[in-house]
Amino acid sequence: MSRRTLGPLALTLGLPPLTYSFWLWLRDHGGALVAPSLRELIANVPPPTGRAVAVYGAWLLLQVALQQWAPGRVQRGGELADGSRLSYRLNGWTSFCVSLAVVLVAVVSGVIPPGIVYDEFGPLLTTAHLVAFGLALVLYVQGRGAGRTTRDPIYDYFMGTTLNPRVGAFDLKYFCESRPGLILWVLFDLSLAAAQYQRHGTLTTAMLLVCAFQFLYIADYFWHEEAILTTWDIKHEKFGWMLAWGDLVWVPFTYTIQAYYLVDHLHALSPAATAGIVALNMAGYAVFRASNIQKHRFRRDPTRPVWGRPPEYIRTARGSLLLISGWWGIARHLNYLGDLAMALAWCLPTGFEHPLPYFYFVYMIILLVHRERRDHELCQAKYGVDWEAYCRRVRWRIVPGVY
Ligand code: NDP
Fold first, then answer.
1. Residue from 250, 333, 372, 388 whose mutation best tests the ligand 1 pocket (most atoms within 8 A of CB)
2. What is the whole-number distance in angstroms between the Cα of residue 184 and the centre of ligand 1?
3. DSSP reduced 3-state for 352
4. Is the CB–ligand 1 distance for residue 331 below 6 Å?
5. pLDDT lower than 50: segments of the chain
6. What is the pTM of this model?
7. Which pLDDT score, from 0 to 100, does residue 200 have?
8. What are the tens digits of pLDDT across the range 293-305?
């Protein structure tokens, strides 16, 4: 079996048990990393309950309906290889607000118990897995029918065969990337906070911080929805198991580890620790948001001042401009550093008893370092000597003075 097949196969078979292990460590071992035997793990995979399927199915239908019909301006995405551009309806902010309102009404009226995520986590996890695996299969079959497959079905299933699979104007990748999993992440947090309150009659500062920080991150994402159109995933990644499973399973079920952990860990945070964590999160957010928006505005209007001065930049032979002043003159991806600072701030409220709640931070380091490398290679191939000149001017990749 070739390396090209082995990696996808290992990830497709290995990541789902890992997500179940996270849940079992949290549910049965208070967050301690106790290696379960494979038999134990398989015995603990719950089938999807009727309630989990109903809730998850209704959730997906609500998101499809909102993506399709909620008001929002239509924007064209980046230029594709054939020179065309696809149109996207940017109604994420409306969908986010309406989703929160619908769930609030469902909880207040007694249709959904507030702590349902804690009670149904396992069956919801299985349901989301079935949807993700099924969706990837449909995408593969569709790509095969269109003659877009290679000789390697495992690789094609994993990486996808089509950049922008659509049903009419409905863009499946854009939808999965930006809607069901991301909004569910916020709702899972809130439901886990409700579970803490139901089980212990209290809402800890740590839980409030984690919920507030992640809520801010997702709200910001939808407020700046236009930026999604220029992300790596939308521009370059085909839509297969990797993105479908990542969007539908990985994001809502593993990014909420801290909140799940805090349900039964009620330690107090000192005012000084709270202030330090809030400061770290807000500093990370400021760098992340300001650097991303600076690049976006510069690309739209290269004459606009950067930090009060005319921007310095390199004009590439391809015509694109590379900003070398402001945040983009300090490091090539200071936006990633902001993300990492926030990631750490989301873990620190959990204390230092167990390493598991720090998984998100470690994962983000791996993800963003790997992403920076891929982006570097892509830009090098695209801009050649101009990119090398940029790298000489801006030496640091992510952390000034360190990396
Ligand atoms: P960037 O927003 O950094 O975009 C990189 C691209 O910008 C390059 O490919 C190049 O594209 C262009 N570019 C690079 N340098 C310059 C420059 N100096 N001046 C102008 N343009 C430049 O990367 P991502 O899309 O990966 O990340 C966006 C945000 O999303 C980040 O803040 C990141 O932290 C966050 N993120 C969060 C994740 C999560 O799970 N929480 C996952 C991934 C990202 P070109 O020249 O072709 O336009």
1. 333
2. 24
3. coil
4. no
5. none
6. 0.92
7. 97
8. 999 889 888 899 9
